[in-house]
Amino acid sequence: MADVQDNRPGEEEEEEEEEVDDSSYKTIKDAVLFAIDVSPSMLEKPPKSEDKKAEHDSPTSAALKCAYQLMQQRIISNPNDMMGILLFGTEKTDLQDGDSTFQHCYLLADLDVPSAQDVKRLRDLVNNEEDTEGILKPAKEGASIATVLFCANTIFTTKAPNFSSRRLFLVTDNDYPVKLKADKDTAVTRARDLYDLGCTIDLFPISQPDHSFDRSRFYDDLVYPTSPSDPDAPVAIPTTTNVAKSGEGISLLKQLISSINSKATPRRALFTLPLELGPDLRIGVKGYILIKRQEHVKSCYVWVGGEKPQIVNSSTTHMADDTARTVEKTELRKAYKFGGDAITFTPDEITKIRQCFGDPVIRIVGFKPRSSLPIWTNTNKSTFLYPSEADYIGSTRVFSALQQKLTTSHKIGLVWFIARRNAAPILAALLPGTEQTNEVGDQTMPPGFWLVPLPFADDLRQFPAPPEHPLQTTDALRDKMKIIIEQLQLPKAVYDPSKYPNPDLQWFYRILQALALDEDIPDQPPTDKTVPRFRLIDKRCAEYIEDYGAEFTMALDKQRHSALAHRAKHVSQKRAGGAAAEAEHRKPAKRVKKEVNVKDEEGGAETMTDQRMADLNNSGQISKQTVADLRLWLGARGQSTGGKKAELLERVQGYLEEKGL
Amino acid sequence: MAGKEATVYILDLGRSMGEKRHGRDQTDLEWALEYVWDKITTTVATGRKSALMSVIGYRTDKTDLGGIMEEAEGYENIRVFSKLKQYFLGDIRNLQEHLKPSKTNNGDLLSALAVAIHMIDSATKGTKGNPLKYERRIIIVTDGRGEMDTADLDEMASKIKDPEAPFEIVLPGVDFDDPDVGYKEDGKEPHKAKNEYVLKRFVEDCGGNFGTLATAIDQLQTPRLKETRPVHSYRGPLTLGDPENYEATITIDVERYPCTMLAKPPTASSFVVRTDLAGVSDPSTESSATAFGEDHPMMDLSAVRNQRVYQVESIEEPGTKKNVEMDELERGYEYGRTAVHISESDMNVVKLETWQSLQLVGFVKAEKFERYLPLSRANFIVPQKANQPAQLGLSSFIHALEDAECYAVARFVAKDLKPPLLLLLVPRIEPEWEALVDVELPFEEDMRRYKFPPLDRKLTVSGKTITEHKDLPTSDLLDAMSDYVDAMDLSTFGRDEDGNEQEYAKPEDTFSPLVHRINDVIRWRATHPDPTLPIPDPAEILMKYSAPPPELMSQASQQLDAVKKAADVKKVPPKVKGRGKRQRTDRDKPLSGLDVDALLGNPKRVKIESSNLIPSFKQALLAADDIDAIQEAADDMAKEIRSLISNSVGDSAYGRALEAIRVMREELTELEEPETYNSFVKTLKDDVLSGKLNGNRRDMWWRIRGNRYGLVDSKRSAFSPVTEEEAKRFYHV
């Protein structure tokens, strides 16, 4: 019987093999319960306006749209995480379990991994202007906020009992939702119960045009500054919480989406480690993954034996091959293949072998100029580091001093890095990163250090053997190309990942959603932003590309001319051959095929002529010839036909050279 | 990569090799074997069938030519240990038995060499007697004290130099003089000196490698790198613009090869110790043997097979699972918790239609590019072989990027139907060659937008900015840090072969510690099968970059002291991390700082409510000011946990019970009352396993065990009398 592990990783993880570096990161599961206020003011639609930029959504509907977007997004980015939507203040009471303890609470989507039906129901509610089910009808007296919090408590306890991250997203425009002081006290206790349960309240306040939301009136007594699931995590900055103002500036929806997006995934540290600046000088840091390739879900087995297809879970048991006896994990031994046999070590020895490099640490070896970190040394993604005071008091100021120094001096640190016990030690660069903000002043990149893994000699591959005398660019040709490069700069001459959604991922989930909801499969892929803007390229650069082409033809002819003595014949013949010189730079790829075909046109001749081969050689197409053709050609000239293609090519070129072609 | 090779080791096993000289604590033979075993095990580790080898001993007690020579006369005291063949672990073990100093000093090295030449010669010949393409190598290890008949030395040299089938001779001699490294043996016997002279002239005449053993052993310290043949991952056009629909476009035919690729240590496979060491004829033992080649069955290990069981949630009985058969399973995907079934033939519908291409999207300024963005290894992009227009075109592009200080962004599809990627193309110009280097760029979905407070200023809750704070460095600290960083500069600390200054720890000078460590110990174990021997420490070179170079560190010690003083970092004592007996005043407060307990009138006793289990338990513990109150809260909690398990339909309430157990374990450990938890969990285990909690609840036990919610041991809490061993044993049923 295999051990069953729940979502919360146990404390004794030493035994686990280090294989995937962020496996532990993935096991942190997150449950988000969206609680949306349904009150007359929240339902009030902005005045109709012709202006496209004007507000179209009531606050409740904007919140629902946000929830809908977040739900779709989380299916992609956190397919195992839960989400639920609770409306409060509704006339209807329904918690999907027949219980009516929680008055005026309506569970639109139960807290669970979303199903296709949840997505559909939410979408219908968002898209239909008419509220067909009559859900969005406010109760006269509103819901008690204490009830809402207790309701959330119950939902989290029963549906996501051992999720390490549980968050209540509260969207409301009411900054004082009680009448009596006693009601406030109840709400305050209920909020603390939630905190003790390990749940966080994230407030998304909405200001009405005539009333700006004042957190200090009520909610500052309910919201806690630290997250119980990650008490050491740096405190979120309360002042940056956007108070969305309906009816002016950026639309309410956009603001809400932006502030919810920054909380879309709970922040979890990948590791907590000492950063050693020198002997006896250590500070505490935490590592975070901020950049990671988002893959789509892997295909899985689906059981089709029942009415509806069902997801299949599989579990593995180990069996001895000789006796088919079930084997416990502790009985397994590791063995390496060597010389046709197995070399074994005891588990203790394996531990000693792997852990001989010392304890997990980030140790600074010294400092180098920033230029010693060229891009070709990249081997993997970088990890973000931020200081933590949990183990060393004063870490933050030392970290900050180092970050400021390395930034101003354009330096990097060289560090010896062991991420975990059992992890392979690596060398990495400690690269300072500075804070970046957008036009509104919102942080887009946090300040800190990036740990950029460096390659060892073992990780460097040889450069493929360059040709003997490759053609080199001329200054004139380079300058023509430079003009094109300058014409085609991306906006602000930077690469901004947020401008490029992954087209494959988007398409995959669009199709999957259509299949899950039994809808027609869209036949047009959504706009793929990664496709170059050809029209723009043509508009901006056609003229410069023509220039480059002309220069290219000249440079090519000239270089070939100087490379071999007797060339005049060849060039003229080539011109006569019809392939317009100017077109050459445009579509060589297509021209290739034409030229290869010419072989047949020359009819009778069994093999192509020396001149034809010389032309192919000079145009660089000779390597496209098949081995069989080369052998035939060489054989016809009494040359040896043995060896690999590279050797054949050499022989052909040697032959041509001898002939002065 | 490597071609066929035939290597013969000629080992001097004479009596004189059994001596310990020059203060070494090994005999000369033991010392020499360090070199030989390293060479042999390195070859065996490759597992190459085309790497043939043999070992010949001379000055041996016995004579055994293994049928190589027709006549034995003149070949006395020479022993051929095997024919030329691929060596296996068994051969190594076998050889170890025999490589001992003999009782004689008779035996001629040059006769042994003749045997070796003849052996290689006949094994590397084609059917018509023509020499085949082989690397022929003879490695001689000797102390140079034997007698040699040098009559046919020239003849032998010309055979070795035969251009059709040349041999490479390597001779690391024990304590041989080597002016290249400045070694000269004190008090060398004249006879040895003469032999050295003869051998040196001979080996150098053959174009071989003559040296002293100490140097050869020294060189073993530098890890050997595995060479890999470059294989292209893309071969096609690099285009600017759309050649299908526009007139003015540029196309360059390129190929893409790996530039960096992480080397992986050898992987171990899982085995289980065999329980039936009975009959060899048992068919199942044969099948396990095949895993390692039939010649060398493993003695006491059996391969492990994985058996998968497939289950679905039962619709009829919620909370339970039922097994399903493999033939009722089809491919599909999960969309949230909905299963989407896609038949095998329709699998392509989820794929985006793409065509192989590398298209330029635009250009960015090099200085504005954030170095931490790339998330992949790097590749080279070079012109297609023997394609001159491509050479010229790519060269102009590389130089234009370099000159404009720009990088290119390109959309890349490796093969038709593969997902598109965005690549950054960077020029790289070296003295011998030039290329583009590419790395993958992140998409929008790949960025996690976490926010962190600024490091150079502090924002208060009310929105004010502060520049002086304990989390912000003082100007003293900034200055000290600046001096320290400058003092620890590595850019000129390294030395090249000629002693010139160069960058320290360049990638090409560093070796993957784990890769070489594991390879080293595998090879070590191959020649040291005795399980009582301690595993050796990692090679020095693998640890070289694990700390600052001591020389540099001592130069910078003053600056470091200044940083320490200005930084005033204090380690948090481990005791403070656990909260111990908590005070109400220490409790976390909401943003406003409101004292919630005071609001409730600081109750002395809090009752545990099943509907608010965990919060009320935590609050009860907090209110408790004596051990009885803690015990009472724990007992109430225990009751609730047991009732959760008893009333659970299937496993529906197990999650809640587990979470309650976790909180209880954590809180009681922190309150330094681990025994209260331990006695609870002991009873719980018994009751769960003996079916006292309303039926078969064994699954619950597997979950407790899987999450490691067993006994709190003394490692976790100093107040626990439970040993680690005891805690481990607790998990066994």
Short key terms for the protein model shown above:
heterodimer; A: 661 residues; alpha+beta; Rossmann fold; 34% helix; 20% strand; disordered N terminus; B: 733 residues; Serine Threonine Protein Phosphatase 5, Tetratricopeptide repeat; seven-stranded mixed beta barrel; six-stranded mixed beta sheet; 21 helices; 18% strand; SAP_dom (chain A)
CATH class of the domain at 30-261 in chain A: Alpha Beta
Radius of gyration of chain B: 37 Å
Largest interchain contact: A-B, 275 and 267 residues
- Mean pLDDT score of chain A: 80
Q: Architecture of the domain at 5-219 in chain B, according to CATH?
A: 3-Layer(aba) Sandwich
Number of helices of chain A: 18
Distance between the termini of chain B: 53 Å
Region (Disordered) (chain A): 1-26, 39-59, 570-605
GO molecular function (chain A): ATP binding; damaged DNA binding; DNA helicase activity; double-stranded DNA binding; hydrolase activity; telomeric DNA binding
Family (chain A): Belongs to the ku70 family.
Subcellular location (chain A): Chromosome, Telomere; Nucleus
